[in-house]
Amino acid sequence: MTDTTFRFITDRYPELGKGPIPSAPYISPEYYEREKEAIFKKTWLHVGRVEEIPKAGDYIVKDLECANASIIIVRNKKGEINAMHNVCSHRLNQIAYEKCGNTRKFACKFHGWAFDLDGNLTGVPEEECFFDLDKKDHGLERVACQVWQGFIFINLDPNPSESLEEYLKPMFGCIEGYPFEKMTAGFSWVSEVNCNWKLALDAFQEAYHVAYIHGLSIADAVEKSDNGTMPPLDALCGEYHRRLSLGGNQKSVYGNPKAVTEGGAAAEEALSEAAKTRPISAAALRAAIGSAKHDFPLDALPEGMNWTKSPNWLFDINVVFPDLYLSLRPNYFQCYTFRPTAHNKTRIECRVFYPEMTTAGGRFFLEYMKVALRDVLLEDMSTVERTQKAAETGAKKFMLLQDSEILVRHSYHAVERMLNKNQPKASAEELA
Amino acid sequence: MNLIATLNLDNPVVQLPEAFASLQPFVSLWALDTETARNVQRHAQPMEAIRAFADTMLANMDELIAFVNRKPMSEFDEVDETLLKLLLSLAEVAPAVEFYGQQEVVWGFDPRRFVAEEDFNMKPKF
Q: Which of A118, A170, B3, B10 has the fewest Cβ atoms surrounding its Cβ within 10 A?
């Protein structure tokens, strides 16, 4: 699939150019205001997994400062998932205070107005004292809400220009069928970070940093070329979305994605070096082989996974525009959102989902993998606040990108593209 | 041996079977309920204590895994739970021992600002 007539991946995307990228989009409050109006209020935003609200009345509340909204996502009695603004029809109070819960109805704590799980107004104390009040006209404001592969998305545009499926299919139709629903053991971390949302996302959408920033932890898990570099297997850039495929060192516990669910030769390979150098990681893998509740045969994965068909494939990064990062391995996946709360503040929510383990040895392995991941995330996040501060000095108006950072380059262009589509105005270059 | 274990009378320490007697001194420090508690403990303990814990766990690993894997986690009693919690703490200290040679992630983001959602409803029971 990779066209070998091109020396660089970037050669295949001439519309992205090879020049420096402006720093203004990371530090400009005006640019962020445009992003709020033209992106976060206009496109599909990921808000959770269907498994988080399995029963009727289960709900989560998402505060979306980037769209001046607080949204309730709730499963109704028919099993459908609804999204509505967390704003009472009476005196505008928030009707849900907790970030998640289960309820038969939403009752406002101010005057007791009650709404059902579809947002219909069902109860008004002293209703006879209001003037021409027709309850059916005064439900909660509904928000477009659709589900793709168990991922719940909302769209604050009252009339979304395309369905969620139309939005995702061109880039991600080829990974539909990934066994998301079998990954039911989930862990979540949240952090409020002082940096622009794109700057945080950028730290995750290239592997150039792995050899350096992860030099002590998982650099040994990524496949190296003969000259010691870690180029991606390939990258795909769409209109807004993007993908990156990475190879792994099969002789490492973290870098051999098949070891725990396949056992046998894959596990032997992963253990061959780990047993000597990292005995805890080796012990965790050995304790877990055969413990996963499901099998995850590589050949059952959808065709879009490991699209270069590399025998050393480790995982694919999928960036769903604007701010969802999905990293898919054959037997677990990571789901991060980088949601702005201000032009230089971001709420980073990192989640990882594994198959349930049937034994305590398997649970030990999950904890090993999860803790290693968490510490690697602490490495990833170690630069972002300093980079933000440095960028805000204005000393540099542009940054330089190499070929394997093509997703960072594409990210800039995708943001510009949607800004210009939904709200044409001054470009980032002019702001710079 | 740590003294805290013998002094903590309010919260009696689970007694491990004779086969795991060498792990008994670590129960009061490392048999903890949450990732947050385990991470805090990792940063509170000296590396010497962390290495002693890891070494003792590794020395007992085969027997330990055979013991906890003998029945499903849904049937765990407090001894099984305690041994599993020790294994989870071993996972917590693994990067300190095998990646960094110190408790903290080297040049890492502050773990106290990267908050584990202990009430996340897809989190496994243990």
A: B10
CB contacts, 8 Å: A377 with chain B: 109, 114
- The first and second tokens of residue A113, run together, are 């107005």
Taking CA–CA distances from B91, the nearest residue in chain A reads A368
What CATH number is attached to the domain comprising A395? 3.90.380.10
Is A394 within a domain?
Answer: yes
Residue where a domain terminates, one of A142, A166, A190: A166
Q: Which domain holds residue A129?
A: 44-166
Examine the pLDDT at B1 and tell me if it is beyond 60.
Answer: no
Q: Of A230 and A395, which is predicted with more confidence?
A: A395
pTM for the whole thing? 0.94
Q: Which of A321, A320, A410 is nearest to A16 (CA)?
A: A410
> Among positive and negative, which fits the CA dihedral A351, A354, A356, A361?
negative
Residue A225 lies in a domain: yes
In a domain, A37, yes or no: no
For the record, the structure tokens of B52 come out as 């002693």
A226 and A104 both lie in a single domain = no
Query: Is residue B114 less than 8 Å (CB to CB) from chain A?
Result: yes
Q: Are both A140 and A14 inside the same structural domain?
A: no
Cβ-defined contact of A375 to B105 (cutoff 8 Å): yes
Residue B87: closest CA among chain A residues belongs to which residue?
A: A364
Asked if residue A376 and residue A348 are part of one domain, the reply reads: yes
Inspect the interface and report whether the beta carbons of B35 and A51 lie closer than 8 Å: no
If one counts the domains in chain A, the total is 2
Q: How confident is the model at residue A129 (pLDDT cuts 50, 70, 90)?
A: very high
Chain B residues with CB under 8 Å of A285 CB are: none
Strand partners, B92: none
Query: Which of B68, B122, B123 is closest, CB to CB, to A360?
Result: B68
For residue A407, what are its two tokens?
């997703």
Following DSSP, what letter does each residue of A100-164 receive, concatenated? EEE-SSEE-TTT--EE-TT--EEE-TTGGGSSS--GGG--PPEEEEEEETTEEEEE-SSS-SS-H
Is A217 in contact with B95 (Cβ distance < 8 A)? yes
pLDDT tens digits along A353-382 = 999 999 999 999 999 999 999 999 999 999
CB A39 within 8 A of CB A418: yes
Amino acid symbol at B66:
A
In this structure, are A302 and A243 located in the same domain? yes
What DSSP designation does A83 have?
E
Q: Distance between CA atoms of B52 and B111, rounded to whole angstroms?
A: 23
In a domain, A231, yes or no: yes
Contacts of B103 in chain A (CB under 8 A): none
A357-A177-A253 Cα angle (round to 5)? 40
- Residues A100, B121: C-beta atoms closer than 8 Å: yes
Amino acid in position B62: D
Q: Which residues of chain B are within 8 Å of residue A185 when distances are taken between CB atoms?
A: 122-124
